[in-house]
Design a protein that fits this description.
Strand content: 15-25%
CATH architecture of the largest domain: 3-Layer(aba) Sandwich
CATH superfamily of the largest domain: Thiamin diphosphate (ThDP)-binding fold, Pyr/PP domains
CATH topology of the largest domain: Rossmann fold
Strand order of the largest sheet: 6-5-4-1-3-2-14-7
CATH class of the largest domain: Alpha Beta
Helix content: 25-40%
Number of domains: 4
Radius of gyration: 26 Å
Number of helices: 19
Number of strands: 20
Shape: globular
């Protein structure tokens, strides 16, 4: 059993604070949480909303249907009332004029004024919500005290109790089992993964929706011993990260599509110098400024094929906050092992939604540096770009080994790092770099398979669509009829092919599910394997695709195909 509550209003009315209080209270009561945020690119005005889904079962996606609305303005009602369930409720101020029978008009503004702070209005509504669901006020004071200074916290606690006493219980209380889950979003997971991997330098220029990675890391500089630099632009940011990595620090940068465009030449520099680098590219709709605060999956091909020339790189699409943490750690290890850039591909949906997951396993984290400093403290000759049987040149940190020079250059170079115009050396060096992709294929992770092993219809998706696809496949298989399965890719370049080839042979239809207009994953798969998708489910309006949308589309198509 699960429910979904929407808090809506204009930017500046405090929706995010209200929702954060609400989800933390519910989480501490043992509920599973999945919260999505929809906000405009403006400081004040417009229409913003936060949707908190909670229940006693695992939640992998947001819900299109809502069971309650906390409306901070009348616009929220006009936009969302059609999504409200029949037995749902609408909490709004007594001055709101609307004919819907589900409205609960409360003296929100008047009560807030009596408390002495108009901004506590939202927590009056939170108190009313708790009472409607017959939930007690345990954890209320603890959560509010953590979010406000003492005098403001006292007013907000008073406000919540005021709201609790304004209504009577209406719905059967859900009684979840207590658990030890954590509440986290995708960008926080990336930042935590970077810290767990030993990242010591992060540079970036603020660009929605990647900025919260930098903000989180900046809040931990003293505690974690990391240097965080807000650069003047993305070109400076990636070059700073390359320089820090060359000097021996595990380094990372982050941006969105427009900023990544500026980083493209330096990405090639990382590969040419063979300096490890991790880049988080958190997608938003383009081109150019596009929709700064919304979501899309349209940068896949751009990221894979970026940079002039041919370079080795790995692209990992992050699927959920649990995956984002561990894949960030893995990205640092792979970048070190192969001395090349690794790109973490996220999007606004994953960056901003918060959900409950099991705590991370810090005891089994491995930091793999692949340094050869000790090996060269003897008289052994050092070549920065040595061609050897392993395929990976030994790496030492400049200045660490007395008498050993680490020579690098962005021009083509020989094994010592000296510039060359030799055609023969050019071929050897280019083959040496590109051979990393062949070695990397041996440790690629196959896509997650979800659903019926004997599926007749196979969905193909990547990244943050993991959750919506997982829920949709579950609903379809519970309904009987055709059997559904899905492959959701995390490692996406080089493209792992084994599981895909096995499943594709056995199914009637293959459908790619993507948040872009051109079916970029389907195109990549056809190019790499020759496998063609028979249908596509695409969405590119900037709003996240829900499990219900995928389910409805497949149900309609299934009926047309004789289900």
């Amino acid at each position: 059993m699960n429910k979904s509550i929407l808090v809506g209003g204009a930017a500046g009315q405090g929706m995010d604070t209200i929702a954060a209080i609400l989800e933390k209270i519910l989480k501490r009561k043992g509920f599973r949480i999945f919260t999505v945020r929809d906000y405009m690119s403006r400081v004040r005005g417009g229409h913003n909303f936060v949707q908190v889904r909670f229940g006693d079962e695992e939640l992998y996606s947001h819900s299109d249907t809502i069971d309650g609305i906390i409306a901070l303005n009348e616009e929220t009602l006009r936009i969302h009332v059609q999504r409200l369930s029949e037995d749902g409720f609408i909490i709004c101020d007594e001055e709101t004029v609307h004919t819907d029978e589900r409205i609960i008009n409360l003296p929100l503004k008047k009560a807030a004024q009596n408390i002495g702070n108009p901004r506590v209005l939202g927590n009056i509504a939170v108190g009313a919500f708790l009472r409607l669901y017959n939930l007690d006020t345990e954890h209320v004071e603890g959560v509010i005290n953590e979010n406000f200074r003492q005098d403001i916290a006292k007013q907000n606690i008073t406000a919540l109790y005021e709201g609790y006493n304004l209504v009577d219980g209406r719905y059967k209380s859900i009684s979840p089992s207590k658990d030890t889950s954590i509440l986290i979003n995708g960008n926080e997971a990336v930042a935590l993964g970077a810290l767990a991997a030993g990242c010591k330098f992060y540079s970036a220029y603020p660009m929605t929706p990647s900025t919260s990675i930098m903000n989180y890391l900046a809040s931990k500089t003293e505690e974690a011993g990391i240097v965080v630099e807000q650069a003047e632009d993305e070109i400076a940011a990636i070059n700073m990260a390359i320089g820090a990595s060359f000097a021996g620090a595990r380094s990372m940068t982050g941006t969105s599509g427009g900023g990544f465009a500026l980083m493209v030449e330096a990405l090639g520099l990382s590969a040419m110098l063979e300096v490890p680098l991790v880049v988080a590219e958190i997608q938003r709709p383009g081109p150019t400024t596009g929709f700064p605060t919304r979501t899309e999956q349209a940068d896949l091909k751009f990221v894979i094929y970026s940079t002039p020339g041919e370079i080795p790189k790995m692209v990992i699409a992050l699927r959920n906050p649990e995956d984002a943490f561990y894949q960030t750690i893995r990205a640092f290890n792979i970048a070190d092992r192969y001395r090349m850039p690794v790109i973490l591909l996220g999007d606004q949906y994953l960056a901003d939604y918060t959900t409950t997951i099991k705590p991370y396993d810090f005891d089994n984290i491995k930091i793999e540096r692949y340094l050869n400093n000790d090996e060269y403290k003897s008289e052994k000759e050092y070549k920065t770009y040595e061609i050897n049987e392993s395929g990976i040149s030994p790496r030492i940190i400049p200045g660490v080994v007395p008498g050993k020079v680490v020579l690098v250059d962005s021009d083509e170079h020989d094994e010592y790092g000296r510039i060359t115009e030799s055609a023969e050396i050019r071929v050897k060096m280019n083959d040496k770099r590109l051979n990393k992709l062949q070695m990397l294929k041996n440790e690629l992770q196959e896509p997650d398979f979800i659903g019926n092993d004997d599926c007749e219809v196979l969905l193909l998706a990547w990244g943050s669509l993991h959750g919506p696809v997982k829920e949709a496949v579950g609903m379809l298989n519970r309904n009987g009829g055709k059997k559904y399965g899905a492959l959701v890719f995390g490692d996406i370049w080089p493209l792992p092919q084994k599981r895909l080839m096995e499943k594709a042979k056995k199914v009637e239809r293959i459908i790619n599910v993507e948040q872009n207009a051109t079916g970029q994953l389907a195109s990549l798969i056809m190019e790499a394997t020759g496998i063609r998708c028979t249908d596509s489910i695409l969405k590119y309006d900037g709003r996240p695709m829900s499990s219900a949308e995928i389910y409805t589309r497949l149900e309609k198509e299934g009926n047309r195909h004789g289900r």
